[in-house]
From TrEMBL:
GO annotation (BP), single: cell-matrix adhesion
Pfam families in the cross-refs: Ependymin
GO cellular component: extracellular region; lysosomal lumen
PANTHER family assigned to the protein according to its UniProt record, in alphabetical order: MAMMALIAN EPENDYMIN-RELATED PROTEIN 1
Main location: other
Reported function: Binds anionic lipids and gangliosides at acidic pH.
Family: Belongs to the ependymin family.
Protein's name according to its UniProt entry: Mammalian ependymin-related protein 1
Entries under InterPro entries matching the protein: Ependymin
GO MF: calcium ion binding
Subcellular location: Lysosome lumen
Length: 153
């Protein structure tokens, strides 16, 4: 399994509802900052979901192994899920490199209308710039509720 960020930080950018939002998730503090990029308005929201260490859970079901890419540019990946025989579908599918178990893609299905799919690229070990996890000064007076983005994750 991949040795992820032990303290559980995440930094991402999401476009939704015509706006561009940056998210800083500080799992150790159980806090998420949602920053609207044009105005720098900020919301500070409690995190309720646990940190996802981006590894293959012990109880995962092996689905398949295959190569992605073209000739002389292939990499072997393995696909895992939380599918169980008593359920008709899985709620999590993870694709990882076979050699070092780096994440390639994860898909979470909360219900039939909410799906979160994450693709991983340009992976580097460690955190190159820890300052991306420091909320901007506008977050000192952050709103206590999430700004509308027309999607939920």
């Amino acid at each position: 399994p991949v040795g992820g960020c032990v303290e559980g930080w995440a930094h991402c950018t999401l476009r939704g509802g015509g706006g561009l939002f940056e998210y800083i998730l500080l799992y150790k503090d159980r806090m998420m900052f949602q920053i609207e990029q044009a105005t720098k308005q900020c919301s500070k929201i409690s995190l309720t979901e646990p940190w996802d260490p981006l590894d293959i859970p012990q109880n995962a079901t092996f689905e398949d192994e295959y190569s992605i890419g073209g000739p002389q540019e292939q990499i072997t990946v393995q696909e895992w899920s939380d599918r169980k025989s008593a359920r008709s579908y899985e709620t999590w599918i993870g694709i990882y490199t076979a050699k070092d178990c780096y994440p390639v893609q994860e898909t979470f299905t909360k219900n039939y209308s909410v799906i979160l799919s994450t693709r991983f690229f340009d992976i580097q070990l460690g955190i190159k710039d820890p300052s991306v996890f420091i909320p901007p000064s506008t977050c000192q007076t952050a709103w206590a509720e999430r700004m509308s983005e027309d999607c939920s994750w």
